[in-house]
Amino acid sequence: MHPVDLVIIVLYLLAMPVVGLLLRGKQRTGADFFVGGRNLPWWAVCLSVVATETSTLTVISTPGLVWGTGFTYLQLALGYIIGRVLVSIILLPRYFKGNLVTAYAFLGQRFGTAAQGVASLAFVVTRLLAEGVRLFAGAIPIQAILASYGIHTAYWHIVLGLTVLTVIYTYVGGVRSVVWVDVVQLALYLGGALVAVGVLASRLPGDWLSVAAAGNRLQFFDFTSNPLFSQYAFVTAIVGGAVFAMASHGTDQLIVQRLLATRSLRDGQKALIGSGIIVFVQFGLFLLVGAGLWVLYHGATPASLGLTNTDGFFSKFIVEDLPVGVAGLLIAGILASTMGALASALNALSTSTVSDLYQRFRKQPLPEESALRHGRIWTLVWAAVFVVFGSMFSSTTGPVIELGLGITGYTYGALLGSFVLGLLVKRASQADAVAAFLVTVAAMAVIVSLKFTVGGKSVGLAFPWYTLTGVLITLLVGGLLSLRHRAPALTSVG
Q: How many Å apart are CA 262 and CA 255, to the nearest integer?
């Protein structure tokens, strides 16, 4: 890597905390810290949602998918759009009507503080593990870059450095700083991807799209794969993807918190649905890069180019073929997406801890000034915890992206199922909801680990089905338990 690129990367990573501090606005109350005073523009929240769900691995790995499945990954993005539309119609109105700070406050209104606390704890554990994986993944390319200059350092040193840079603006500016830094980062890495497409196209023959199509690298729909075991089979991607998006964008505080920071329900709906459309375009852009790389490298296998897997194709092109300066900006944007995801997790965890756990079990509302102070304290606490969690994945030998996806499989179905149970089964009580939640998490631990022999290969259930399976188990258990009650146990639905 050229020294100019390294300087750009370092300056960019140092500049992001400064940007977050400059755009933090006034932080006087808990509402300012947790939901930006409910005054953030919908388009900024929309871009922040996209940046939050985009990790380093998303940018690096997506182009390589073309080698195996063409453009079929885009089917999932279609399912994601459908899921977001359903969330905007079904769940968002209830959140805004109740003037809530967290998604789990809805469960508190519907069932009680125990259900709210259990859901919040599940979110905390899931987010710690999932973001710990993403934080470790962000440290991988940094270690490789440093090693190329003869600087050898442990992963935990890099994890600590990224966390310190991130916590600076998250601690001071809350969700407002997080959102605006996300906007800058998204613009950078998407702009870099567009430049990569331009550079790539200049080095390809004029008919390169025809070559890619002839090699079956542009296939969009997959109607032939087994829908139970292939995550890119059409039915799996559309149905499973839609339900997964309902959980990730309707019950995960990481995303819901941003939507609640907009000025109105309509703005929240525009931000949510708009993010789905941008994600579709974003995936399409990175897959287009992958198709160009497939033609450029003549469909070569990773091993033939000295790579360990298809994730390395885009990284190889960035380092070897992009102009000096452009490569540095693109890599900086990719790495900064790790900081953005961490900042989002820190703010969401502190919000849920204070609003769903501490404040509820304290049984007395916190003054706004105290809520702000507690939010900042818990930001520091979770930052320290993340250093530990991000470092402990350094012994991981399998694909990190698969590990991250597997973690959400345990709890997303139980979370979404609890919300659906509260909406559809009026007899369900708090005890029913908590029992159904715990049974579902235990059942999913078994289901995720199951392996089946298909075509002589050992495969598991396609991950988009995890959430739907969890929802069905929660409804079944909660519904059966609710039959014990003679009258509806419903107290409030927001």
A: 12
